[in-house]
Amino acid sequence: MKIYSHKYHDLFHPLEKGIFGLTEHYIYNSLNDKDELVPLWGGNASHDEEEIFLGVNAKNKFGEDVKIFEGDCIIISLDGSAGSMTYKPKKKNNKIFKFCLNHHAGIIRIKNNDKINPNYFKYKFENIFRNMAVSDGSKTITKEMIENFIFEIPDLKDQNKYLLEMKKIEQLSKDLNSKIERLENLKSKKVELDNFRNHSLINLNKVLDYCSRNDALSEEGIYNNLPRDNKNTINVLSGSIDDIFYGKIDGDIQNIHHVKKKYVLHVITRGKAGKISFLEKGNYATNTNAFIFYLKDNVIKDLDLDTEDKIKVYLKFLKIYLQNIFFEACSKSDVSVFPLTELMKGLLIPKIKFSEDIKKITDIYDNLENLLTECKDKLDKINLIYKKDFI
Questions:
Q1: d(Cα 292, Cα 123) in Å, to the nearest integer?
Q2: pTM of this prediction?
Q3: Of 3, 58, 163, 291, which is least surrounded by CB within 10 A?
Q4: pLDDT per position as a tens digit, 96-126
Q5: 185: which residues sit within 8 A by CB, 6+ positions away?
């Protein structure tokens, strides 16, 4: 594939900027029953949503007429979300599309459509211009920076091939995002406990015990207590929602709160406070931003948890049941932290013995989790392709 180098003025007319001094007062004064209204944009990340309008005969605070642009051009943000671009077609609803810009945006109009497709221009150069933008409180890209740029592009036929691939990728991304949203909504619904309503209630602290946090397990604390071998280690958990595994320390360390050879629930105490994760059987400790919960030994027999699989399933069930309760409790907290003492002593939950109904609920949620993970992995791969420079 042959690549051609072009100066800005080989491909485009001079960049036209929007008007300065267009304040809310003057926008409001332009609204009347006589004048045609057109959408107004500035340094937006996208110029698709039409939220602000003004009259075509509007004036700025200096008494100057606003500039009304027509479509078949590319809007580019010069401040704010600098470098963001949106192509506007010539017509909308069979009428010439008109719009206005403030001084935070401008338009790029193509001289010759035989050389460059405007949609290709957006896909190919939007991220380049975004990365070129300089920041002094607000990101900015200047007319001079754009007009001095050298554009390396293939011929129009190859540009159109590129666009077809990008549209396929965009549609896949849109479909996956829609699936992820539906799955997240399903996952966040409260567990219906119609089959368990006749059960007696029991304090949370009669079912679960917890392992206290460790102020000493900072990065330095972990470094000073690295494992002597890989056979006897403790996983240190953080309060992050992205990666809860913070490091490993030696299994024989003294004066550290930890659990050994247990299935656990990890609960974030700050930030996304109340977020619960189930963890497989292992050795665990936490830093200052998380707690570990595990089943009390004396309740295991009482709940008919006579196998490891049943213990595992029951903890998963408690995760599902408690998640919205924990989130709600944290949202009511004055400083949005996890209210451990209040929940352990005051929260009553149904005393439910192990049953097939519990297993069915956890199986459904496991399937949801697996589908979510699969969709997110696919979306990550698609986004990598989307960002990749095909040409």
A1: 46
A2: 0.60
A3: 3
A4: 999 999 999 999 999 988 999 999 999 899 9
A5: none
